Amino acid sequence: MGGVGVISVAEARARILAAFSPLPAETVALPDALGRVLAEPVVARLTQPPFAASSMDGWAVRAADIAQADAEHPVALRRVGEAAAGHAFGGTVGPGEAVRIFTGAPLPDGADAVVMQEDCEPDGDRVRIGRAVQPGRFVRPAGLDFSAGDELLPKGRLVTARDVALAACANVPWLRVHRRPRVAVLATGDEIALPGEPLGPSQIVSSNALGLCALVATQGGVAHNLGVAKDDPESLAAMAAGAAGCDLLVTTGGASQGEHDHVRDVLGGLELDFYTIAMKPGKAMMFGRAKSGAGAVPLLGLPGNAVSTGVAAILFLRPILRVLQGLAPDGPGFSQTAKLGAALRANDSREDYLRGTVTADADGTLVATPFARQDNAMMSRLAKADCLIVRPPNAPPAQAGDPVTIITLSGGVLTL
């Protein structure tokens, strides 16, 4: 690697994502599979339902015996037993016989239909049936849902709560899923302190590391916060060594070429590319392999500005985490078309990602409205945003109602 120059967001994403592939599979207990990505399909181990079962409380009968029954002329059948869920009737229903049955109970041998209890009148050891039914009425046949050997969930699926329930129905207690990405996060800079610490006269509170760790968690990864490295090579090298064994090291700050920016020199050498990306907020970024004490861990160097870090993480870190788990880089609904809720002036040569809100108009069309102020220091705007409004380089002025591409700021591993 080792290139310097201005590149597009699309080119930067392509270069970065080309370096990653899905992590190996591991076996986890079904309750622990929520939010994980399947490395192998889920195959049913049994047939569901395993037997023909009643879908109604009523009476199991032979449909032919009550073919002429109606409310005015009920047919009397002899009661020969009872079937409840978990308690099958052990005999056979013969001509002129019926079995009291409850929802979920196996349909007795000889019976081919169920008459719901509202159309029946028990009378001692007999029952009067006041409605004719067709064979199969209120009967769930064996295998109605699925059969043993059926593929129920495909490889590459993000496991939802409903999927957990389905696998349980199929008697699958263990799932093969991709290992969670392990991501080390290292903030840099003499000017930052951790939340709650006393602040010096020239210091600010560090938000980047905590925000990045939270993003990693929402996307299915496991974050390791390495803390804050000072602006000297020894501190940076020592703290970066904590990334050994991780799948990715993410740094914030120190990605530029100033006298106090040491990330490239200490961790990279010729193993890192320095990217000036034609985007705002943010433009300075590094990617490659950190070869210092971190043990040649892939490194993504993000800007130090909090909003720039957040936007860059959405565009670059989130898709890395998805690829490592066997997912497509961008999930469904990641990029959508909306119409502008306010006019915008012409854009400069950098691709702009405006923070904004999303609403729906009367006909359901999405309306994306940028915040009036877009200062890169305003973290509150990013926190309140529903989307990033994408403005291509050198885009002409736009009017309210014009179409625009947005990137939604929703979506994680815990979907219903």
Automatic annotation (TrEMBL):
<dbReference type="GO" id="GO:0061599">
    <property type="term" value="F:molybdopterin molybdotransferase activity"/>
</dbReference>
<comment type="function">
    <text>Catalyzes the insertion of molybdate into adenylated molybdopterin with the concomitant release of AMP.</text>
</comment>
<dbReference type="InterPro" id="IPR036425">
    <property type="entry name" value="MoaB/Mog-like_dom_sf"/>
</dbReference>
<keyword id="KW-0460">Magnesium</keyword>
<dbReference type="InterPro" id="IPR036688">
    <property type="entry name" value="MoeA_C_domain_IV_sf"/>
</dbReference>
<dbReference type="InterPro" id="IPR005110">
    <property type="entry name" value="MoeA_linker/N"/>
</dbReference>
<protein>
    <recommendedName>
        <fullName>Molybdopterin molybdenumtransferase</fullName>
        <ecNumber>2.10.1.1</ecNumber>
    </recommendedName>
</protein>
<dbReference type="Pfam" id="PF03453">
    <property type="entry name" value="MoeA_N"/>
</dbReference>
<keyword id="KW-0500">Molybdenum</keyword>
<dbReference type="InterPro" id="IPR038987">
    <property type="entry name" value="MoeA-like"/>
</dbReference>
<comment type="similarity">
    <text>Belongs to the MoeA family.</text>
</comment>
<feature type="domain" description="MoaB/Mog">
    <location>
        <begin position="184"/>
        <end position="323"/>
    </location>
</feature>
<dbReference type="Pfam" id="PF00994">
    <property type="entry name" value="MoCF_biosynth"/>
</dbReference>
<dbReference type="InterPro" id="IPR005111">
    <property type="entry name" value="MoeA_C_domain_IV"/>
</dbReference>
<dbReference type="InterPro" id="IPR001453">
    <property type="entry name" value="MoaB/Mog_dom"/>
</dbReference>
<dbReference type="Pfam" id="PF03454">
    <property type="entry name" value="MoeA_C"/>
</dbReference>
<dbReference type="InterPro" id="IPR036135">
    <property type="entry name" value="MoeA_linker/N_sf"/>
</dbReference>
<keyword id="KW-0808">Transferase</keyword>
<keyword id="KW-0479">Metal-binding</keyword>
<comment type="pathway">
    <text>Cofactor biosynthesis; molybdopterin biosynthesis.</text>
</comment>
<keyword id="KW-0501">Molybdenum cofactor biosynthesis</keyword>
